[in-house]
Amino acid sequence: MKRKIYAKLVEWKYQKHHKPLILNGVRQCGKTYILKEFGQAEFDNLAYVSCDRNDNLQAIYEGDFDTARIIRGLSALTGVDIVPGKTLIFLDEVQAFPQALEALKYFCEDARAYHVIATGSYMGIARHEDTSYPVGKVDTLTLRPMDFTEYLRAIGQGMMADAMSDGASIADLDSGFRDRLKDWLKEYMVVGGMPAVVADFAEHHDFNEARKLQREILDDYDGDFSKHAPLRILERIRMVWASLPSQLAKENRKFIYGALRPGARAREFEESIQWLRDYGAITKVPAVTAIRTPLAAYEDSAAFKLFAVDCGLLGALARLSPSTILEGEKLFTEFKGAFTEQYVCQQLVAQRLSPYYWSSPTGRAEVDFVVDHPDTVLPIEVKAQENLQAKSLRVAVGHFDLHKAVRTSLAGYRDNDWLLNVPLWAINRLAALPL
Predict the structure, then answer these.
(1) pLDDT, tens digit, for every residue of 203-258?
(2) C-alpha gyration radius of the chain
(3) Does the model's pTM come out above 0.90?
């Protein structure tokens, strides 16, 4: 399955002074698959090492971090002749063997000619207290679940994906393919972007099997919680994770600690929320007190929304019936439209945009998302259907003297002076749109 990150990997390979690369990502987002494909296609040889429960690594990395000795050991372990510039050294699940992570510093300093990539979860790489993280000595990329365009390509709609990626007119695509794009979007919101689920659905087109695979992923996540999380916060991690559907189903989607249990306070759950963020399972969308650039300067750390990493996993977590896809546009209005917000959040993050949200002091106006856009800041309102009202956006634009706002909905593409309506299927092109 073709992933957009592949071009970034090729770019890294040909950097004159490349550093070792760490590819982050939540479990089962496709890290191992894409790097094996990259190594086999772009190098003469691939030296693959799984760091998980690999007793042979201890002898290779014990003592000092002599890179020549380590390379000889990895060559013997993999049976691959490791040649600078021609071999990719791939250390999978590096968080399971922290010494291999620490050694990347010395590959940067003493063996820059070699191409080394390590994968791991955010949580696993960030939380080894006895290991020195190679700050400044590695490059990093993040692989996330497949976005809508990647999904289209995976299910055999490559021509449509090419048209969307190559900048074909949104208005032309919408006028010619609106109904088909809406149907594919509904599929995506149920299937989600986890590669194993998408691959199975592309072959069998079975929503129930997709849901079964998603439940298996959720079980794997719960197993990771038990394996890696400090025991003192394990139950609170599970409470936060399980609460996502109910938190998002509220009219005001601001995360409420009291919804976890009566009398719950922020100090009891802050570490649990941070752990889930480090693991990669959730996206935190903070509030801002003003829609001005840079948004980070106006962040209100006490108010935020939490979304899941993937819309398909959220549907499985909420036990949303896959049959909802057959019920017209009901899928877009589930959780009072929050399921659609989940989809939009996922597409924004896939574009490396950092979403925030804004509420007026009176609470009478709320903008679902706000993002930094080149030379400006952009408020975004999500509409679950073809609702063309934009009262909150009008308030925000007037109050902060903004020249442009975006409403994304099932309605067609329209550019009406200050308000740009972007169809939901095209929101993953937002970062590239001229405004």
Answers:
(1) 999 999 999 999 999 999 999 999 888 999 999 999 999 999 999 999 889 999 99
(2) 23
(3) yes
The closest alpha carbon to 244, from 332, 325, 304, belongs to: 304
Cβ pair 46, 80 in contact under 8 A: yes
Query: Do 194 and 145 form a contact (C-beta atoms < 8 A)?
Result: yes
Cis peptide bond prior to 294, omega within 30° of 0 = yes
DSSP string covering 114-142, please? SEEEEEE-HHHHH--TTS---TTS-EEEE
Percent of the chain with pLDDT over 90: 78
Per-residue pLDDT band for 263 (boundaries 50, 70, 90) equals very high
**Residue 261 backbone zone (phi > 0: left; psi -120 to 50: alpha; other: beta):** beta
Q: Is the pLDDT of residue 386 over 60?
A: yes
Phi and psi at 358, nearest 5°, equal: -135, 140
pLDDT of residue 433: 85
From CA 69, how far away is CA 412, in angstroms rounded?
61
For residues 150 and 216, give the distance between their C-alpha atoms in angstroms, rounded to a whole number.
22
Mean of the pLDDT values across residues 125-133?
54
Dist CA 61 CA 73 (whole Å):
9
Q: Are 82 and 45 contacting, i.e. CB atoms less than 8 angstroms apart?
A: yes
User: Tokens representing 202?
Assistant: 């592309």
CA-based nearest residue to 356, from 345, 366, 369: 369
> E strands of 201-355, at which residues?
282-288, 299-308
> Residue 134: which residues within 8 A CB-CB, separation 6 or more?
20, 101, 102, 104, 105, 108
In whole angstroms, give the CA distance from residue 51 to residue 59.
Answer: 13
Q: Which of 151, 145, 144, 146 is nearest to 187 (CA)?
A: 151
Token representation of residue 6:
């592949």
Q: For residues 336 and 155, what is the distance between their CA atoms, to the nearest angstrom?
A: 29
Instruction: Say which DSSP state 41 is in.
Output: H
Give the integer Cα–Cα distance in Å for 316 and 209: 12
pLDDT of 388 above 70: no
231-248 helix and 266-279 helix, angle to the nearest 10 degrees: 90
- 92-126 tens-digit pLDDT: 999 889 899 999 999 999 999 999 999 986 555 55
As given in the structure block, the two tokens for residue 160 are 């449509």
